[in-house]
Structure formats: structure tokens, C-alpha cells
Amino acid sequence: MNILLIGSGGREHALARAIADSPSVGMLYALPGNPGILKTFQHVNIKVEDFNSICKFCKQNSIDLVVVGPEQPLADGLADRLILEGINVFGPISAAAKLESSKDFAKAMMLKFKIPTAGYRTFTVSQHDVAHQYIDGHSLPIVLKADGLAAGKGVIIAENHYDAHIALDEMFSGLFGNAGNRVVIEEFLRGEEASIFAICDGKDYFLTPASQDHKRQFDNDEGKNTGGMGAFAPAPIATDSVLRKVEERVIKPLLAGLQKEGTPFVGCLYCGLMIDKDEPSVVEFNVRFGDPETQAVLELLDGDFAKLLYTAATGKIDKNTVKVLENTFSTCVVLASGGYPDDYEKGFEIIGIEKAVNNGANVYHAGTKSESGKIFTNGGRVLGVTAKGNSLAESIANAYDAVSHIGFYKMIYRKDIGFKGLKYF
Ligand code: AMP
Ligand code: GLY
User: Fold this and answer.
1) If you take atom 3 of ligand 2, which residue's CA is the nearest one?
2) Of 116, 126, 170, 382, whose CB count within 10 A is highest?
3) Does residue 205 share a domain with residue 247?
């Protein structure tokens, strides 16, 4: 089976590792990939927006499956186009990708299919005055979300009404571009967050172990929101009872509903949950694997991952192609450039990756570049150092042990990844 992987981040490197380790694969191509991915995949020099050339490449190189990592090409209709050309793709069509590209659409679907989520209302720019009135009568804190894709930055949690009014004006005046033409105003949910991925074929699904991201910049969940500073899996907060509730109240009704609407969901359904006293509510849906949760989660799967994605993409998922490792935990610590998520410098040499790998860790590249056989920093999130263990504590210790071998100028990372899971043991 020949595979084309789209994307260039840490998530895609983790996908690439799991795909390359699959017995069923043949030629592997990455568009564009990164220095970690390109150790086992061949680079494809086509722009991701150039759907014509992607289709042509797939036909010329007998691609059996295209795996799409990021959300933007899915929102832009890459899967629709590939399907039209008879090419198998793991990733939803744009009408189903709206679960991520429009918060209002996601909320409307949740309301329609009775999926537990925060109460909300959506306002357009022309409803400016009503939206401000709505804020005045809203309980605190108030959550405001720009409707469209905003690279994870379009959510503001206002602790008082004044801040909510300011945030609304900012969104309507274009702080998040067109994404803020509509704004969802919703209730604040209390509890602890977890991420659950369902690999879907449109009707049926395979549930991977639950994970927890660490979105804040600093230890103890302080500082700014980032793309994610680390993750661990399985997340003990997602007890068996929580997982069953998520399947019965979220995944099954959503898949059945979307199928009925004529827009079946094929791909990775990311359920971002708030869990309070064993009761899950949906905070958000994403239509692709999470980053950095994927780096932790895929460590726990054994078998033919590529075949799992292929059977999902072709309409009948074969859940027996992979199994979840028992009594195994995984932790991913993100190494970032000093200053991230604000301004940071790049171009610094990274040392010690080999040593960390020889120590048993997987070091996933996120923002790196390769020059004359050396690896340099090239982004905010640079590497995802990931290690397993027979307990959560052991996987955390192994991950930080691997981190201790790696260095680059102004390297920063959180020292408490996974700690929030330890209280359950
Ligand atoms: P989203 O982009 O929808 O995932 O939101 C980003 C982050 O904002 C989430 O991961 C939560 O930490 C937080 N958040 C979003 N919506 C809510 C909500 N209704 N209640 C509490 N926190 C929320
Ligand atoms: N880890 C959060 C996300 O992938 O959206």
C-alpha cells in the first residue's frame, strides 16, 4: 500500500512513525513532511493548496491512501476533490469538516443530535447590539468563540462582563479575520479536560486511548494558551464509565446523524471534552488528530495502523488491525523555543536527539529544519519527546530522562507534563 501523508508537524511525524511501522505499507510520501518524517518518507514538492497537482501525483504514483494531518486542507475540500478523482482519503469531506471549521455548525449539530455541551447562542456582525445585550444577562465567566478556524486562538474566556464586551467588539472588528464574522457565546463548563479520538469510517469507529493535553505555557496550567506543551495517555479521568457515555451520547449519535444528513464522517473525530464528576460534555470537535496528543496516543497502539486508516477510508473499518497495549502509559514533553507562544528566534542547532532515541524515546520533529546533516530549530514548538512506561509515573520519568539529553539555545519546556494524571493512582 502506497501512502501520501499531508502535513509537517509533530502530529504528522507521529502518524508517519506509526504508518512506517505498519506491515502493509509500500512507498511512503510526505507533502511536505519535516526532517523527522523525511527519514522514512519521500518529500513531495507540491503546495498543499494545489489540489490538481496532488491528484495527478496520486495517480502517477499509484497512491492507495492519502492521510490528511491538518484541518485547513480538509476545510478547503481536499478530501472532496480526492474522492471525486477516485482516490482513497483518510479525512472528512468539507461538509463534515465544518464540525471544526464552524463552531456554530458544531453547536447546531450537537443541539440537533442531543449531544451534551454548553448552552449557547450565535450572533453575526449585524446582530451586534443584541449580542451585547445577551452578554449583559449572561452568567460569569462568559466564553466567546470566533466561529471560523483561528489556529486555536479564537476562544476568549471573560471573567467579567466588561471584558466580554471588549472581546466581542474585537472579534466583530476582525481580530481573527473572517473567523470572527460570527461569534458563539456560550456557558463556561467546569471540570477537567480530556481528548478522545474516534477513527471513523462513516458509520463505525475505533476508539483510541483517551489523552490529556497541556495547553498553557507554564507549569500548573499558568500563562498563555499555546498549541499544546505536552500530553499523556491513557488519561485516567476518562474512566470506563466516561468512555461509554462518550460513545453512547456523543460519537454514536453524531456519526448516525451526519450519515443521515448525507455527510458521513470519515477520518479522526477529535472529541474535546470537559469531564465533571464522571459526566462528559463536548467543548469542541476537531476533524483530525490532536497535536500533541497523537504523539502520546499512537505509542499505545500496536499492529497495522496504516491498514486501520485504509479500512476506515474505504468504508469498512477493520478494528482488529491494531490493539491497544495493556498496562502501558505514554508521555510527550514538547520542547519549545524561548518566547513561544509569542515571538521567538529560530535557527539554533539542536543536540542530543540521537542520544534520547538510543535511550528508548521517540523524538517527534515539529518545528525543525535540516542543514548539512545537522538539525536546527525552525518553529515555536520544536520537538515532542515521547516515552512509554508501565505506569504513568514511569512514562513521565522516561520522557524527562530523554529530554535531559537534548538541548538548544533558549529551549523551554514544562516540567509537570502528566502530573495531573498522577492523582488518580
Ligand atoms: P476550543 O478552541 O473550543 O477548544 O477552546 C479552547 C479552550 O478554551 C478549551 O480547550 C478549553 O480549555 C477552553 N474552553 C472552550 N470552551 C469552554 C467552555 N464552554 N467552558 C470552559 N472552557 C472552555
Ligand atoms: N491539542 C489540541 C488540538 O490539537 O487542537
Assistant:
1) 290
2) 382
3) yes
Which residues make Cβ contacts (< 8 Å) with residue 424, sequence separation at least 6?
A: 236, 237
Q: What is the CATH number of the domain that holds 142?
A: 3.30.1490.20
Instruction: Quick: pLDDT tens for 72-94.
Output: 999 999 999 999 999 999 999 99
CATH number at residue 242: 3.30.470.20
The pLDDT-based confidence of 367 (bands split at 50, 70, 90) is: very high
Which ligand does the CA of 211 lie closest to?
A: 2
* C-beta neighbour count of 50 within 10 angstroms: 12
Residue of 373, 367, 371, 372 whose CA lies nearest to 344 = 367
Ligand nearest to the CA of 213: 2
Q: Grid coordinates in use for 196?
A: 478522545
CATH of the domain at 60: 3.40.50.20
Domain end point (choices 149, 165, 187): 187
Q: Is 193 in the pocket of ligand 2 (CB under 6 A)?
A: no
Residue found under cell 451520547: 249
Identify the nearest ligand to the CA of 149 by its number.
1
**DSSP 8-class letter at 21:** T
Residue 19 Cα to ligand 2 midpoint, Å, equals 20
The residue segments making up the domain with residue 402 are 192-424
Taking only the tens place, the pLDDT of each residue in 116-173 is 999 999 999 999 999 999 999 999 999 999 998 877 678 899 999 999 999 999 999 8
Which atom belonging to ligand 2 lies closest to the Cα atom of 284?
A: 5
Answer yes or no: is the C-beta of 71 below 6 A from any ligand 2 atom: no
